[in-house]
Input
Amino acid sequence: MSDGAQIWVDADACPGVIKEILFRAAERERINVTLVANQYLRTPPSPLVRAVQVPAGLDVADNEIVQRVNAGDLVVTQDIPLAALVVEKGALALDPRGALHTPETIAQRLSMRNFMDELRGSGIDTGGHAAFHARDRQAFANQLDRWLAQRRRG
Output
């Protein structure tokens, strides 16, 4: 990739099937993929894939990603506040279910997340995330392919 863009992964809660898609994309597209987590992560033997282990603690992995991310990078996370921070820095964020967070979409998603958080805080059961399905994996792969194609063209 001539533009130097890379992929960062908020890896503590990232589904294994999504990591596998990213590992294959790293090799196919010759793009660096860095997993950030507060636990040891096994990665394939590739110079393009690495893991950064950070100390345990609230938002330590998120802060590490925000510190290292550059404009044009892609961050894979289901954490909406983290997505908002990286979008502010000129990166894009992609949810493991395929939702792309951009400057045009992040404010609404952050608002909805905060609203749901308030509901949960007042004791209302909001149900949480639905089970991860093959259609989620496909939506992620499709959105990742679109981002990679834009990088090739750009």
The mean pLDDT is 90. Residues 116 and 128 are 10 Å apart (CA to CA). Helices lie at 16-29, 60-68, 80-88, 106-121, 134-153. Residues 134-153 form the longest helix (20 residues).
